[in-house]
UniProtKB/TrEMBL annotation:
Pfam short name (any one): MOSC
GO-annotated molecular function: catalytic activity; molybdenum ion binding; pyridoxal phosphate binding
Name the record gives this protein: MOSC domain-containing protein
Domain MOSC: 20-170
Length: 182
């Protein structure tokens, strides 16, 4: 459990836009994603993945980014606010990138999102802010690729999600598997 962790902002967009407008609240729908969002659905909605195989399961129903990343980027000269990288939920106080696959994020009293993997940012980020892609996808000291643009998940239980709601983390039983790109 992440003590003091909260939802800082929520965002959604009915269109396939790069950024998503910040909202007063969103509603998560079990097995589907964010109500009214372009990525809502049982099968994949990301356009490049639809082109490859439109029947593959949608493991990217909800995109979450930690506010601390946005602050790090601001300190490096990138002006990035909540929703601007396409995330639906901005959290504070949760090490999203350190979670294992299968961790469940409890957002407020009702909504539950299972973490499926890491977001793999695309070249559109360069149009938003030159140099940002290199900052969000880089090589670690061991030479492995590090993806820092948040995590993706599927909605286990629906419900309203609003800024200020608590975020609790439930870790899976058994061995913890590292997140991979989805």
């Amino acid at each position: 459990m992440a003590v003091g962790a909260v939802v800082e902002a929520v965002a959604s967009s009915a269109g396939h836009t790069f950024g998503k407008p910040v909202r007063e609240g969103i509603r998560l729908l079990a097995g589907l994603g964010v109500e009214g969002d372009a990525h809502l659905g049982v099968t994949v909605k990301h356009r490049s993945r639809v082109a490859v195989d439109p029947t593959q399961p949608n493991l990217r129903q909800v995109h979450l980014i930690h506010a601390e990343l946005l602050e790090e980027l601001a300190a490096e000269g990138f002006a990035v606010g909540p929703g601007e990288l396409g995330e639906n939920v901005t959290t504070r106080g949760v090490d999203l990138l350190g979670l294992p696959r299968g961790a469940v994020l409890c957002l407020g009293p009702d909504a539950r999102v299972e973490v499926t993997g890491l977001r793999n940012p695309c070249a559109q980020i360069e149009a938003f802010a030159p140099g940002l892609l290199k900052r969000l996808v880089r090589r670690g000291r061991d030479g492995a690729v590090e993806r820092l643009a948040g995590v993706m998940g599927v909605v286990l239980e629906g419900g309203a999600v609003e800024p200020g709601m608590a975020v609790d983390v439930l870790l899976p039983q058994g061995p913890h598997l590292a997140l991979e790109r989805v």
